[in-house]
UniProtKB/TrEMBL annotation:
Molecular function GO terms recorded: precorrin-3B C17-methyltransferase activity
Pathway: Cofactor biosynthesis; adenosylcobalamin biosynthesis
InterPro entries per record: 4pyrrol_Mease (IPR000878), 4pyrrol_Methylase_sf (IPR035996), 4pyrrole_Mease_sub1 (IPR014777), 4pyrrole_Mease_sub2 (IPR014776), Cbl_synth_CobJ/CibH_dom (IPR006363), Precorrin_MeTrfase (IPR051810)
Stated name of the protein: Precorrin-3B C(17)-methyltransferase
Keyword terms: Cobalamin biosynthesis, Methyltransferase, S-adenosyl-L-methionine, Transferase
Coiled coil ranges: none
CDD domains registered for this protein in UniProt: Precorrin_3B_C17_MT
GO biological process terms on file: cobalamin biosynthetic process; methylation
EC id: 2.1.1.131
Residue ranges occupied by any Tetrapyrrole methylase domain in the UniProt entry: 3-209
Name of the top EC class for this enzyme: transferase
Amino acid sequence: MGKIYVVGLGPGAGSQMTLCAKDVIEHCPVITGYTVYVDLLKEEFPDKVYLTTPMKQEVQRCEMAFQEAEKGHDVAMVCSGDAGIYGMAGLLYEVGKKYPDIELEIIPGITAACGGAAVLGAPLMHDFAVISLSDLLTPWEKIEKRLRAAAMADFVICLYNPSSKKRADYLSRACDCMLEYKRKDTVCGIVRNIGRREESYEILTLEALKEKQTDMFTTVFIGNEQTDIIRGKMVTPRGYRNV
Ligand code: SAH
């Protein structure tokens, strides 16, 4: 029996991958994952067997991984960022109920929230909430409920999947929920293509964020009451000076 490793690759390519993730990929003869991430690996590891399925065929991808492991091959299922944050780790455990003899191991990676925070400065120094605006698997009403609850509690909020072509106004709707509790001049940040060559960021107010168009390669940060701009960067105080 082979084993399945669920591997977070980090937000970009190469240097933001952990040594452990790299070792596992070097070790496994079979690599599977969403086409975009697998293509990134093909250049560096040309001698592997690559098995891919398009987006939205995640269950089939998991089945494929278990079938390969049953044949005796160790498999690396790769995800961007961390495999357990809007990644494939949970789904493999669910699908794996049918394959109790095949071992699973999760290899953590740098998630977009950490990668993006480092680009912006230090926005996540205090309590924060991560919310995905994708309503593919969660009803929009529940997303709004979580947005309002996190805003009401003055969390720094990090938004994944902020918008796509089909959901062009979701970020604007999320900002409306924020504006019910947070000031218009709350410090916010957006980071595109974290860890990749085209990486870019912008720091702006919540009011301005509401008018922004973003895409699926963007992570959005909304500050708390105390988040400030220092040296042109987004910084949430840790609070040591207040104690
Ligand atoms: N498992 C991933 C998240 C997958 S959800 C992780 O831990 O990072 C996909 C969302 O993550 C994207 O819509 C975007 O909001 C964010 N994201 C992932 N990689 C990114 C990158 N390189 N730059 C900016 N945002 C990224």
